[in-house]
């Protein structure tokens, strides 16, 4: 026969703690040690587990309530059979006896541990003194695990600093996790990390050495000697107290002996796993159960917006975040030009590591700054945009004759301007964009609308010694051939001299990448998001073309139009390419 039992608040180490999250509901079936509620004190957040398996019948607390040891959280129906009062008393007596025996055993273990601590206190003091003597303006102190309650052998789940890092007072150094809580060990003072004595996965207890911290020393030499003497005296006192005092005083003595130069330790504070293993200045409020769930999903809690009180992250927030991330295309953090990471939900295997030196002599050359910046963007655009490329040719025989005539006139007038075929391509593209406005748009952030632009700015890919850059020529539709030519010459010089500003490469509506001066017959240019299309231009060549009566030599220019298939379909792209080709073949069309 099942019986109702009270769910009692165990020893939480504080007078009162606040209930910040209810983890079960009436009617839920729970296992032994399953978390019932999450509470928070000034030091940490922790889960309160149930002592038996069963079904939750009622809850007597709500979020925001203050509770203490012995309070009733609710009632649950246990599967255990009812027993009479004598049996219950007998079990209670046996339990009490058992607890006393365990307490005695713990006291014995503590006495042995304190004896070991007192033996090592002297050597720690010597190490601290030697570190101080290295510099009159600074000293090196030991940072140890402060009082973390009754917990021992607590696992380190994250290192928040590295050797050489500079930290401020109260910054988190490591993150510890017990079955009930997650907490940081803070820096007692501001300074520089000299060395780390622990690693992820290590088990530590109160007094364990975490790291050596170099801090400023404002005291005079004589003051330092007094401090060293005081430290030695406190170590001796700790050794004698560990033999004669009670368990409680023994614990206090251990605190004194393990604190170098009598440094006061701040209590551990709740912490979140920070992105990239770097120190995070902000804190994420979440219970241990939520943190475990986040780790299972591989979620960085710093990226999750909390919906609970004081922006506390709830289980529902983590689940919603996972659903959102799975439903949208994105780049994985840390993607780079040479990384194997992917975006857009593509599950592509990372590049295997290859030792090229075993095949012959090699040399490693670092990427240029431009390559490092453009690589991730090119990668993102390629894997997140569904590319289609339309190929065509434009007859530029008359256009080339006209261009040469205009260059001769400009040279005769000493205008200092040289007209290139690229100028006419820009005018032809701007004209086609007016006819087909979808080419002058961008997908909205939600991906459910198009942002239609009323201006016509065209980006021009420029090859430089450091890599590819794309400066932007603005209002192409409003400028003449000479004005655009002059502007093109100016930005080309700035690009090759590395003098382009960030503003010079922003705001494009469409991009043109011309390889005509080098060679090739066609290629597939990558759309430069947020643009939705890009025109690739290859080297022109004389080809025989049928005019209805016979073949005649014509100068043909290969065009490669890549576009975002989410915005532009094949038929529209073909019409756009024909429009550009026609405008280049007969410039009078642009005037109509």
Describe the model.
With 592 residues, the protein is of the alpha+beta class. Helices cover 32% and strands 23% of the residues. The chain is built from eleven helices and 27 strands. The protein has helices at 85-132, 221-244, 247-258, 288-297, 315-327, 369-384, 397-412, 421-435, 481-496, 570-585, 588-591, and strands at 3-8, 17-22, 29-30, 35-40, 45-49, 54-59, 66-67, 72-78, 138-144, 154-159, 166-167, 172-177, 181-186, 191-196, 203-204, 209-216, 387-395, 441-443, 450-452, 458-460, 462-464, 467-469, 472-473, 510-514, 533-537, 541-546, 551-564. The strands form six sheets. Strands 7-2-4-5-13-12-10-15 form an eight-stranded antiparallel sheet, with no helix packed on it. Strands 17, 20, 23, 24, 25, 26 and 27 form a seven-stranded mixed sheet that branches. The chain has a four-stranded antiparallel sheet with strand order 1-8-6-3, with no helix packed on it. Helix 1 runs antiparallel to helix 2 (221-244), helix 2 (221-244) packs antiparallel against helix 3 and helix 8 (421-435) crosses helix 10. The longest helix has 48 residues, at 85-132. Belongs to the 2-oxoacid dehydrogenase family. Forms a 24-polypeptide structural core with octahedral symmetry. One of its GO terms (biological process) is pyruvate decarboxylation to acetyl-CoA. Residues 236-259 have a biased composition (Low complexity).
